[in-house]
Design goal:
Chain lengths: ~425, ~220
């Protein structure tokens, strides 16, 4: 391979650097800060695990979209496509006996080998939190409130958290006696809001007309809290009614958090997988085509690892959130830039002394050995491209200048004033 | 109309589909005078009063525009939706542009479809063809993608059968081919961006309801 070809990255992965990466880290910081404020403990799990941890029964990513490889013993390993199964495994392994709720938060990259040329990245950064061992309605509301507070903290203003309950739909199917395979197909159509498709499917399977009408009507209900009242009038089976009541209670508690203006309900929001067992939610905003936060209750997942425990979690798709912020022209406040000291050979001692002093004051300082072929303008350009505020030029001990990179103003200063001053 | 209302943007598949769609939209009070001007070289047509924007795009690109939110709503054939497999809501069957996705070939090729022997399929729709043969018929196939005049495939010996849209079947007949199996019926569909559906719920819901009343 020629060196020109070596600089490419494979499709679906990319380099992030400079200001873009600073912004990404800052957004992660803001969200992490909120998650910490709710008492979540950071946890780090391996980047790859045994295939079984992400298998069909447990995971949400089809096997053919997993990055798989083998270890020396021939075990199949998988690059994590999402974090939740790993966290569940950890909770079961280290906290088997714990019955007081535990809170984990994580950040890292996930890998999904999705189709080419669709403009989707194969490696994305996710940050999330999992609340394990708490089956309460209060836990549902706490997690949703945390999502809203964290999104607000990033500066995002226009967003909606849409909430559904998978039990609602399961109740409808149970009542109508819909077999599992039909339910799966139906779920697909309804979560795509393809109601005419759903209608055709139900008709072709000879489902009773009254059930068809009800199913199509109520799964099309979405909007404010009033939507739930509307659904209540139509639905009679106990399981679905219980689901609606749960959503109403969640809403009540969300009003205590004062975040209800960001919330809407969608009874047609279903999960493609059996993974979720209760409340599910997604946060949407302008500028990206998919939800920026996804979450829900998964009370059966930990059973797969031998721990009987309820759990609820969510994850932020950091890359999509950043794209949304940038498309909505929301600026992310970054810390001020650093200083570059350009020194000639004779000034090495002074340069190091000054750099040490400034670094001890938590300032960012980079030392650059002066090059006679470079002009001041070139250094200014370099500073601008690298978020550097001040350029200190040490020609000799007596000839030192400070240039502000953004204004271009240059002044002569003495070494003494630099070492004593607090600029 | 409030000043800060967002524009709802529509991406329409070029050609007859767009014309039929605008005719239907006019019945529910959605018009765009700018679009009727045949000589216009504009790419985007606006209805300032209703805060609507329209643009025409090549069929297969419509789901892409909608998935990424470049358009809130799109109108496109079901064949494109199946082939592109994008994450969009498919909310309405608009009823026009009716045709069928079929496996076609010379009459003698019928025999080939009865076994699980490997056959060669030429198509403009490799994903639909693959899904049909792999997941429904469980037959191994070699798919050859062509970009037009797919009927040529079996005639010049490039493939055994084709997977393509059949409207009247006259092109097939003229070339000595016939429909061997039907994959699925097709028609124009309205698709909606997932985020727009949530953020502009009221306006889009009303549009769907109004259109439904006319279908």
């Amino acid at each position: 391979m020629s060196s020109k070809q070596l600089v490419h990255t494979p499709e679906g992965v990319r380099d992030i650097y400079g200001e873009e990466y600073l912004k990404k880290l800052e957004v992660q910081n803001l969200i992490h800060h909120k998650i910490k404020a709710y008492g979540f403990q950071d946890i780090q799990t391996p980047t790859f695990e045994f295939f079984d941890v992400f298998s069909r029964e447990i995971g949400t990513v089809p096997s053919k979209e997993l990055y798989k490889f083998f270890d020396k013993e021939g075990n199949t390993l998988v690059l994590r496509p999402d974090f939740t199964p790993s966290i569940a495994r950890c909770a079961a392994k280290y906290f088997m006996e714990e019955d007081i709720p535990i809170r984990f938060s994580y950040v890292g990259n996930t890998f999904v080998n999705n189709s080419n040329l669709q403009g989707k990245l194969k490696e994305i950064t996710e940050m999330g939190a999992e609340l394990i061992g708490d089956a309460s309605i209060e836990a549902d509301a706490e997690m949703i409130s945390l999502v809203i507070e964290a999104l607000s903290a990033t500066g995002l203003k226009e967003f909606q958290v849409s909430i559904g309950e998978v039990e609602f739909f399961k109740g409808l199917c149970e009542e109508a006696g819909i077999p599992e395979e039909l339910e799966l197909n139906l779920r697909d159509l309804i979560s795509n809001k393809n109601f005419f498709g759903a209608e055709d499917l139900l008709r072709s399977q000879n489902v009773k007309e009254s059930y068809i009408t009800t199913i199509l009507k109520v799964t099309d209900i979405f909007g404010s809290i009033d939507a739930l009242l509307e659904a209540k009038k139509v639905v009679t089976n106990a399981r679905s009614c219980k689901a609606i009541e749960r959503l109403e209670r969640v809403y009540e508690i969300l009003t205590l958090y004062h975040v209800e203006q960001y919330v809407s309900f969608d009874l047609g929001m279903l999960s493609k997988y059996n993974y979720y067992t209760g409340v599910i939610f997604k946060a949407y905003t302008y500028g990206v085509g998919d939800a920026i936060v996804k979450g829900g209750r998964y009370d059966n997942l930990l059973d797969q690892f031998g721990k009987h425990s309820a759990a609820i979690g969510f994850m932020f798709v950091i890359d999509d959130l950043l794209a949304a912020l940038s498309r909505q022209d929301i600026s992310i406040a970054l810390k001020e830039g650093g200083t570059v000291i350009i020194y000639q050979d004779c000034c090495i001692e002074n340069a190091i002394t000054l750099a040490k002093k400034m670094r001890s004051e938590n300032k960012q300082v980079e030392l650059v050995k002066g090059n006679k072929n470079k002009t001041t303008e070139q250094y200014k350009e370099f500073a601008k491209n690298n978020r550097i505020e001040n350029i200190i030029c040490m020609q000799t001990e007596d000839y030192i200048t400070v240039t502000n990179a953004s204004t271009g103003d240059t002044e002569k200063v003495s070494l003494k004033s630099l070492l004593e001053g607090n600029q | 109309m409030s000043e800060d209302m967002r524009y709802l943007t529509f991406a329409l598949g070029k050609g007859r589909l767009a014309k039929n769609t605008m005719d239907l939209f006019e019945k529910v009070g959605i018009t765009c005078e700018e679009m009727k001007d045949k000589d216009s070289r504009k790419l985007i047509f606006v209805n300032e009063e209703l805060k609507l924007k329209f643009f025409l795009a090549k069929g297969p690109d419509v789901p892409t525009y909608v998935e990424y939110g470049a358009a809130d709503i799109g109108v496109v054939g079901k064949d494109t939706i199946l082939e592109e497999n994008r994450r969009v809501y498919e909310v309405l069957d608009l009823g026009y542009g009716k045709c069928r996705m079929c496996v076609c070939g010379p009459a003698k090729a019928k025999e080939l479809l009865k076994h699980h022997e490997m056959i060669r399929v030429t198509s403009k729709y490799p994903n639909i063809a693959k899904d049909y043969f792999y997941n429904k018929k469980h037959q191994t196939v070699d798919i050859i993608k062509l970009n037009g005049s797919v009927e040529l495939g079996p005639i010049v010996g490039l493939g055994d059968v084709i997977v393509d849209i059949v409207e009247t079947g006259s092109t097939l007949k003229e070339n000595g081919l016939e429909v061997l199996e039907e994959i699925c019926p097709l028609s124009a569909r309205m698709i909606v961006n997932q985020v727009s559906m949530k953020m502009e719920a009221e306006r889009i819901k009303k549009l769907i309801q109004d259109l439904r009343a006319f279908l």
